[in-house]
Structures
1.
Amino acid sequence: MTIKPGWQGRFFEDFEVGDIYQHPLGRTITETDNSWFTLLTMNTNQSHFNRQVGESSEFGRMLVVSPLTIAVAMGQSVIDTTQNAFANLGMDDLRLTAPVFAGDTLWSESIVLAVRESGSRPAAGIVTIRTRTLNQDAVEVLTFKRTFYVHRRGAERAGSLFPQAATPLTLEDV
């Protein structure tokens, strides 16, 4: 029997300008998600947690708090872009282009804008992507650029930390 490694993510060498990654996991935002995130981030704007205030707004309902939308979008992109990153260097040109409401399902995709060697870290490189997030109706709700350090394939610090059991897993164990 052989251990079949799961998806290990992309390394610096895997990124090419123009590549597009449609991130595989959509996420439906619930009213509970919105309330918890609003409380967690201490946002006191009632349009995010007071139904009466939300219904009297121009949107006619409560808005999802913007940092939650940003966090979901960034999280959705990790599987394809920063699984092997070790530092975000910046976010630029962040635009919240349409409102998000509880019940909306968010999907994100990223395009590689720039790839360059690191002058100070030979075991890594620097990648810049643009991510956009769409709702279930294909309306763009968010866009931003993000730059990050990512390990090169084989970099010492990029190795797996999966613990090795004293006895291997076998079919006889079942």
2.
Amino acid sequence: MSNTVENLKWRYATKKFNSSKKISNEDFETLKKAIQLTASSYGLQPYKILNIEDKEIRKKLREVSWNQPQIEDASHMIVLANITDFGDELVDDYFENVIETRNVTKEDVEDYSNTIKSTIGQLSQEQKAQWTAKQAYIVVGNLLSAAAQLRIDACPMEGFQNEEYNKILDLNSKNLNAAVVVTLGYRSEEDDTQHYEKVRKPENQLFINF
């Protein structure tokens, strides 16, 4: 537990990355596994994870991210894109995976599948988009923690023009929406932010016991 706390104290929203220092393939595969294993409602994972490597695309994205240098300077850039609308196919795809992975029959999962469909099927399109975006944010928390354990710096980012991202990445045609960005890499020695004391509410203001 002490290592977990120390890692979380160590991390901060990195503003300047060392552009010459790259995350190893092995470490990035670990981060991908952490993303893949993140909890989601019903286990549906209603989002896609975009790994933006192309330098020209990242340059375009920086222009619609208030020119924040992390977009280009970070070793890796992840865009979490939530599914904006869905029908029964989202649940059907999940249970096909359940059947194959757990070696069960369609009849074994039919009741639970129908329960999920009836629950989320009554949501409006706007509610569906809001719900899937919330699921994408769960990934962010897990990714930041995993990166801190590897002593990899990260910056979660909402400071970007959402619709412009969707245009540049052609997300609208894929029924996706850019919900949040995480840049990953290693802090620059010139990033003064790393020396700031971490500011959090004290426990007696944050927690309520019943």
3.
Amino acid sequence: MKASDELTDFILDQLAPLGRFAIRRMFNSTALFQDGLMVLLIDHAGVVFLKTDALNRDRFIAAGCSPFTYTRRSANGTLKAVALSFYTLPDGLLEDQEALLDWVRSAGEAARRASSNKRRARDSAFPTA
């Protein structure tokens, strides 16, 4: 078993009180989805990231967390850093189940808000008669 699989299993055990999570490999990372929404991301180095938005991001910044970033090539060939709306988990949180559950709940709420905002934008772009 790879170390990343062991970390994923540990996190899933810690998150068990929140219900079921689905696992998908993406961005050279492991993503955990709850109710079809990506809530948590574990990168190839084992760094854990949680979903953020305008309502919970300040909490992550105040805790010294940093965003998930990757580099991509733009249309003109230059490299560009791209930041996703996922921030690192505060240090020491994996071992504190209650605190971890609180932060993951916040990430789940951010994911639901983002999904709701996308639906609203899509629905307003295609109004029904």
4.
Amino acid sequence: MLKLKVDGMTCDHCAQTVTKAIEAVPAVERALVDLKAGEVTIEGSADQGAIRQAIEDAGYDVRDAA
């Protein structure tokens, strides 16, 4: 399981966009977005770099969760 902070999500549409971007990465089983916390939890064995790139390509900034 991987937890990341995603900056720039402000609404449900943003959360859906991030979820779809992450779930399109091979080997991602599920992405759970916590909009209030600005975090996403990813389940699966996908490459962390590919996940980060997918989030950035969707227009959001990503960093490690504290």
